[in-house]
Amino acid sequence: LFKNVDANFFSSDFMWKDTDALASPQDRLLNMGPIWDFDLSVGNAFWFDSWILEGCHVTEQDPRGFGNWYTKMFDNPSFLSMTLERWRAKRPALEKFVNASIDTYSRRLAQAQERNFARWPIFGVPLTNYYVFASHAEEVAFVKAFLNDRMAWLDQAFASPASFAAMCGRHGAVQAGQ
Fold first, then answer.
1. Of 143 and 5, which is predicted with more confidence?
2. Per-residue 3-state assignment (H helix, E strand, C coil) for 100-124
């Protein structure tokens, strides 16, 4: 959803495994988390076309030679099928949750963002971002629009394995020996 530049095991991907002998077999699986580091996501970076809401970073071969583990996972038809099913199961509540969360956190951070930008007056200054805004309200509106538009795009991309292959560049076919 977030089109995070740091996805696809470029950085900030953490995995853990509970090795406690008393843990249930399910708890001894490889786990991902915690999730964090979204500063270069939601259209907020000028690298790798991340400002464009279309596209799937986690399915693209990384030209720098990083990770590409997710890329291989999406080549597995079972994983792809489970991903599309999970999107369809979670999607009905996602838009309301995303918009309510943005509104809630924007209200909670209202005073803090004023102090932040008084101390560091960076509005209108390009840093790592493709789009440059003149106010916090403009930033929040952009994030909300980006995520809502991205959900609509992902609805199309995640409609079927064929649409996923066409829109995200993966074909759900693991080659022999992989």
1. 143
2. HHHHHHHHHCHHHHHHHHHHCCCCC
